[in-house]
Specification:
Layout: E1 6-10, H1 15-25, E2 29-34, E3 48-50, H2 57-61, E4 65-68, H3 73-86, E5 93-94, E6 99-100, E7 105-106, E8 111-112, E9 117-118, E10 123-124, E11 129-130, E12 135-136, E13 141-142, E14 147-148, E15 153-154, E16 159-160, E17 165-166, E18 171-172, E19 177-178, E20 183-184, E21 189-190, E22 199-201, E23 206-207
Length: 209
């Protein structure tokens, strides 16, 4: 998304540091952050606004954007549901070093990290994290609130469900279908379809029971 934007962050630890760096790299602005408590470590010198349940989010955020800058899929989902209920403005954040095809579709509150690649006809749902150096090949579909970890590769036409975690440097073979709430361990090679609510890892990946 082009043009100057001003953001508030929802969450300010770990993953939020990469989000904040990407906002600044896009020459956008960060107005402050919401969290349970004021951060001890504040490398970007951001103002602490308060805990979202104890303040009037609509009044504070106004016409600016609020971004869910947390890595946990379940927490990120809850934040986005809150934003939708309050009709607060959402946007994607794409680091300028990422490559995103103009023929890909990216939904709101999704973060695309440095050097990630999203190729033609890919669909990326809302609240997704495409972390550093991940590759989403042509025709892939990623459900809402999923996290594709650093260096993970989805070959062409892979389908990932909602609220999945695809571990770092893992590889999903072309055309495979991954259900909802699936965890694929780091460094795994997935050559089979995976049903909902399962954990797989290894080369080739097998189900953990």
């Amino acid at each position: 998304m082009s043009g100057y934007r001003a953001f508030y962050l929802m969450g300010y630890s770990g993953h939020a540091m990469v989000v904040a760096d990407s906002i600044i790299a896009n020459n956008d602005n960060i107005l402050g952050y919401f969290d349970y408590a004021e951060a001890v470590n504040n490398p970007f010198n951001l103002p602490y606004v308060g805990f979202e349940n104890d303040c009037d989010l609509n009044f504070i955020v106004g016409e600016n954007y609020l971004f869910p800058s947390v890595g946990n899929n379940a927490v990120r989902k809850k934040i986005i549901m809150l934003l939708e209920n309050k009709r607060l403005k959402q946007s994607t954040i794409v680091h300028p070093s990422a490559i995103v095809s103009k023929y890909a579709q990216i939904e709101n509150s999704t973060f695309i990290a440095p050097r990630a690649v999203v190729n033609a006809l890919a669909f990326v749902g809302k609240g997704v994290i495409l972390n550093t150096g991940s590759i989403i090949e042509h025709g892939c579909s990623i459900g809402n609130y999923s996290h594709i970890a650093p260096g993970a590769v989805l070959a062409g036409d892979v389908m990932i469900g909602n609220s999945c975690f695809i571990g770092g440097n893992s590889f999903i073979r072309q055309g495979q279908k991954i259900g909802n709430n699936v965890i694929v361990g780091a460094g795994s090679v997935v050559v089979d379809n995976i049903e909902d609510n399962q954990v797989w890892f290894g080369i080739p990946a097998k189900r953990y029971k």
